[in-house]
Amino acid sequence: MVTKYSQKSEPWANMTLGKSSLTMAGSGCFVCSLASLLDQSPDITLEALNKAGAIDSWGKLLSDKAAPALKMRYKGKAKNRPPDKDFPLICETDYYKNKGYPQHFFLYMGKQIMDPLNGEIYDNFYPIVSYRLFKVKPEAVYPARPPEADSAPTAPAEAKLKELAAEKAKASNSSNLPYLRALWERTWMDILDIWKKLLSNFIKTK
To answer: What's the domain range around 6?
Structure first.
């Protein structure tokens, strides 16, 4: 089971990618996917990448530098699906290219994905453009998670946990709820885009 991480979660949401102005919340899908593959907190992962200069001034992750910084192996990228034994892998999609985002990365387990957009696991519906061949080194030792992650929750945190537990209980009758919710949101985004195009064409023809 992979670790679920959302790029929009605290404390890393507002951390910047390298020396760029891009934040994890808006553009941290690749970093979160690597963190999930490593079972390592995204803020620790990003700090290692920034320190090694593995993210350029535009916020682009440089895989050849990222691998040694994270004590991983990197064998390049592939267009064709690798053997099942190589999963989980990080994949690239162009699903959001019409919305101004030419790339999105997620962790792919062969059928299901861990989507950094919301930190949920569900069946993949993204078209895959490429596979990024990162592998964890068995002998590597990674930094432990921050101590506070294992401490007792504060009163506000405890209330939030109860709220999340209640939401999870409501969703217990549908194991695919996260997938359906994400699919519904994307469907509405596509419908709105179609209406905008139709309205634009209508105005031009008048």
So the answer is: 1-150
